[in-house]
Amino acid sequence: MTSDQPIHIGVLFSKTGRSAVTERSMLAATEFAVEEINAGGGINGRMLCPIIRDPMGEPSAYQQMAAELISENKVRVILGCYTSSQRKAVLSVVDREAALLCYAAQYEGFEYSDNIVYFGAVPNQNSVFLAIHLLKNPAPRLYIVGSDYVWPRESGRIMGDLIQSGGGRIAGETYLDDRAGPNDFDALLKKIKKDNPDIIFNNFVGEANRKFYEAYVENSLDAGRMMVASLTTSEADIREIGASATLGHITAASYFASQSNNTNRSCLARYRALRQEEPHANMCWDAAYTQTHVVAQAMRTGDPDNLNSIRSGILGASFEAPQGLISIDPLNAHCNLWPKIGVARADGQFEIVAETEAAIRPDPYRTTYEFDDDMGVSSDAAAQATSWPRISGLRQ
Fold first, then answer.
1. Residues near 219 by beta carbon (within 8 Å), at least 6 away in sequence
2. pTM for the complete prediction?
């Protein structure tokens, strides 16, 4: 290859469709990272050139476009996908065609391939932390809801196991498919209101998340009466839903835009200066930005045209991300991340009320999620889980 020939990477984030509210922010973060990389000299003088496709949220389109990027555009690295169904569709392609997918969303775990690196949280990095927080109230009753596909169902199962093992109860569990309309969400919220749980554990994503909160408000519910806890309701969702509907509800995530650390503040300031717009940063924005830079690091230190060299350069790498210093576990290709609990504010941002004092190692293949005596869950102290560093700021 000539020294001035661009290096192409594939980018698969939806600008339209059911999951576009989050994927648009992931795309913006990716474009921003590429602009930073190229402004800094690219990959040893070669420009990084993203080939962007819009699958409109449909798993079959992700699969088809991934195949086209590999066969027609000759890319070897694809950055993309939000839902697990989208990821699995692309994974079938990169496994067959020997390419690499970098995935920037939280997911259910129990997946491994030599052709994927995971930059989002797995359950021991978000669900466990959220459950510890919820169990500060003795014996909470949860109603579990979500979109009807693999991640929400698995997330609901894990949270149910954690809450019940910590002395809480599950009042009910309902999943709605992508075709559910306002009447379906209204009926669901009426049922939940009648069952009167303490907390709704919400695993809806994209447009379904907006419909859920609209029905929640229309049924005269608020955080003071029945709090909503989520792993997915981010700043991007709140911008779509409206801050008044989410005020006081909580989200567990590895990143919030309101973080006051210098790396985050500097990154957001650079985004505003370079792109002349607000970043609308959220947990997936952070992961998408980070994975782009980590791929570029690996290309600079190895052979940017060799897939094995790129993958080897990613595994074990570290990066000073907006959320904190992350690293990629070389054994399972998942990231060490920084769990946090945020309470939604009136300005659409989150007040961070709990966080770990060190990054948490990923445990994507954990078979059981239950609290026991060794995990130290208590009703009057900052709980600690096995292998977790001390948690700071945990409060109700």
1. 186, 189, 190, 193
2. 0.93
